Amino acid sequence: MAYSSLVLYYLSQRRVPGRSFRHFFFIPTSLALVTSLLILFYISTTSNLFTHHHPNPKTPLQINSSSSSSTFSFTILRHKTSSTPFAIEAPLTEDGGGQRIESQRSLGPQLGSDGSHVNNNEVFHDRHIFLEDYKEMKRSFKIYVYPHRQDDSFANALLPVDSEPGGNYASESFFKKVLMKSRFITNDPTKADLFFLPFSIARLRHDPRVGVGGIQDFIRDYIFNVSQKYQYWNRTGGADHFYVACHSIGRSAMEKASEVKFNAIQVVCSSSYFLPGYIPHKDACLPQIWPRKEEPHDLLSSNRTKLAFFAGGINSPVREKLLQVWRNDSEIFAHFGRLTTPYADELLGSKFCLHVKGFEVNTARVADSLYYGCVPVIIANYYDLPFADILNWKSFSVIVATLDIPLLKKILKGISSEEYTRLQSNVLKVRKHFQWHLSPIDYDAFYMVMYELWLRRSFSTVTSSNF
């Protein structure tokens, strides 16, 4: 700025010829423009204004919404953790395009939300708080389920399944089946912490009376009927209600019932905070788990000779990129199509198992990896991972941004044998949290989902002229 003033003073002392008079305006204008650009550059490189951050778990998240009957704010008060829930600072396009981003494994020491160093040896953010809260959750947590009779015309979608759940979307049915027999259920809605909307997205999808095209109308009508018959939905606008869905069609199922999407707690497998409709901290990720009955016999003694393994269809640009780079590699086995060897053998024979984004950020491969003692490698930007409020994913998995697929081997081989041993040891510690049982076992998938719901209970406050 001092240099600009000197130039202006010098020019003011000169007699400027007529033809050069325009330079009198050009020089200071140019200098002002350059100075402004330098100031903007300085601000952009030193300020947080232009940096996106995942919500801090210690900071309440407020979501203001309104309906015809009330206006309310929904606030989640997260329990104190040593680090934020998992978040990849990833490109702003789903296909991996955008600015170069370093994967989490290439970062230096991680800092928690309180500024302290994160202990990546611990699988829980805060074990003491979790265990203490878990006991209270089991003692006091109560849920009211909107009742439906066996002769209801849509009992198939509103009541638990009769058989044992199976397939890719079993988590949805497992949760409902186990919940309905649990001690968490109360028949007195005045004692309920939360209200369960028991419709099954997966079963509605296959019902010829509804199908994919009719799910939105069904949900709209269901919420209308609940709000007319019961007083509980209207008093909070649905903020103390929740539903569970594992099929990705659940993402669009609420389009004609926006109050469910924005107010109620959505417990869903397709938990991507890149796309609208899923709100981290309000909503929760349901782990997609393929049911298995028997424990692997050689889980601990397995000889893991492959560096990394993936098998699946080519249904996303991310998987196309993985195939393009690694399909002929001798250490990273990237297979597309039907395997000629047993899937379990490949998981047991690999150090790292790749979870690569397909149509959605979620697949059952994370739970598959953990079940077979293989360290999961998450290649799915914006995936709000299961139980991220509770578990420290950095302690038992490797997070790789989709742009870093060409660096995958360098990242994995850069992990020392000591660190790999730690990662796999923690995999064996957390695998019990990703298993369903018809008779629930402490800390299994059912109880972990219940704990996520317990964290979200009783945080809705109603401000309405009608109350």
TrEMBL record:
Keywords: Glycosyltransferase, Golgi apparatus, Membrane, Signal-anchor, Transferase, Transmembrane, Transmembrane helix
Subcellular location: Golgi apparatus membrane
Transmembrane helix is among the record's keywords: yes
GO cellular component term of the entry, any: Golgi membrane
Signal peptide: none
Ranges where the Exostosin GT47 domain occurs: 138-413
Topology versus the membrane: Single-pass type II membrane protein
Annotated transmembrane regions: 21-43
InterPro entries in alphabetical order: Exostosin (IPR004263), Exostosin_GT47 (IPR040911)
Pfam families: Exostosin_GT47 (PF03016)
Gene Ontology MF, one: glycosyltransferase activity
The keyword Glycosyltransferase belongs to this UniProt entry's keyword annotation: yes
Family: Belongs to the glycosyltransferase 47 family.
PANTHER family per record: EXOSTOSIN GT47 DOMAIN-CONTAINING PROTEIN, EXOSTOSIN HEPARAN SULFATE GLYCOSYLTRANSFERASE -RELATED
Protein name in the entry: Exostosin GT47 domain-containing protein
Highest classification ranks of the organism: Eukaryota, Viridiplantae, Streptophyta, Embryophyta, Tracheophyta
